[in-house]
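User: Teach me something about this protein's shape.
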Amino acid sequence: MRDLNLSARLRAIAAAALTVAGALLILLAGAGSAVPVPAAAAGEPQPRVTVAAASAGAPAPLAGAVGYRVVTFVDATRTVHFHHHGTRPRTLITQIRYPAAGEVAAGEVPDAPPLRAAGPYPLVVFAHGFAETPTVYSQLLDAWARAGYVVAAPLFPLTQRYVPGGRRESDLINQPADMRFVISRMLDDSANPDSFLYGLLAPDQIAVAGQSDGAATALAVAFDPEFADRRIRAAVVLSGAELTLIDDNIAFPTRGPALLAAQGSRDPINEPSATHRYFALAPRPKFLLTLIGATHLPPYTTQQPYLGVVEQVTVAFMNHFLRDAHASLAHMRLAGNTAGVASLIG
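Assistant: First, the predicted structure itself:
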């Protein structure tokens, strides 16, 4: 990723991105006004393929249903400028997925009551890639919620798909602070008796995750001393790297959060060498998941059998490092080493 110039990078992302039907303006005329992102993911989901050997040892999902809400967090201390659309407070429309009470449901259930009996739950804050929205990753985020995680996925105001006045990748420098802000607001709401999140989060069990430019954002907020949030215990970096627009030479600490890096061996946008570089510098514990023959975005959205492997490995990783479920490490290694599909080191 770091070796591509901006124009080439944008062309590559445009070619690799899934097609989203229709256009959606997410910011209305009033500052902070918003409409939610549509619940359907882009494109037709592919049939789900189970990696049989790994699935045999997989823990059962904690929740049959996934609740879904969209909230708007406004950081009044910072502003964002839209070309020809003025300056507004920095507003983060955030999709929240969580374990929900009720019967097993194939999709997300809007405004479903949370499954409180099994809580509190770890928090995962997820960063989407450039010119994407969190909805594109809904299958993966739903899998995390079913496994017993509350997942908050903010829509970055200048790097998401629909931006009044046009996207600006230069705004990546502001996204680590967005992640920190969302963590704080989610924890505040978990402590607020008037919030649906009340009592739902374990404040000492926090992970960040992201894909592509969002992965670079997660990497920075987990490890870069200029941006790092010490509340983070684990980081999931999916096809990401150090970026010049944030910091292409992170001074990794000698100790830090647990790291799971995932990389497609045929990724034309974030080349494997970019992942290998930061992985070599990052402190232990760290794991590198290589998806054999995979490209940039599809393995984390709909493409099987890669998506099934990513779901199982990421859940097992977070179970081990957030929940101290030590038996999960063996399952992570099993799921991550699937002949012809994936290999895991670390």
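Now, about its shape. The helical segments are 6-16, 52-55, 138-146, 175-190, 213-223, 272-281, 306-323, 328-336. The two ends are 23 Å apart (CA to CA). If you'd like, I can walk through any region in more detail.
User: That's plenty for now, thanks!
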